[in-house]
């Protein structure tokens, strides 16, 4: 990543270069809007890889929960919401930070 996050205005002036670095060099860039609002510019390929890793993590946690139920170590649960299910499996809710 860049040593220091770039402000939006600075990132805007360098956007072509930053995109090229993300795509060709797989170098992410942190962009800040304020002290608390930040985003990271990464290549689409890197983003897809992160999504794939998240899906694999989710699948392995669900598979382990099913296996634990089969071994009698976990009882069958019903959930009122998707957020409750994700919390029980110690996964970040969809759309939330990991």
TrEMBL record:
Transmembrane segments: none annotated. It comes from the Bacteria. InterPro entries: Antitoxin_Phd/YefM, YefM-like_sf. Belongs to the phD/YefM antitoxin family. Antitoxin component of a type II toxin-antitoxin (TA) system. This is Antitoxin. It comes from Nonomuraea insulae.
């Amino acid at each position: 990543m860049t040593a220091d996050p770039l402000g939006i205005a600075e990132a805007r002036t360098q956007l072509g270069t930053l995109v090229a670095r993300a795509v060709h060099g797989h170098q992410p860039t942190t962009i800040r809007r304020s002290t608390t609002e930040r985003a990271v510019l990464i290549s689409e390929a890197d983003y897809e890889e992160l999504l794939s890793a998240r899906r694999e993590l989710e699948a392995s946690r669900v598979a382990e929960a099913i296996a634990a139920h089969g071994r009698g170590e976990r009882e069958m649960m019903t959930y009122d919401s998707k957020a409750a299910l994700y919390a029980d499996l110690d996964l970040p809710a969809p759309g939330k930070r990991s």
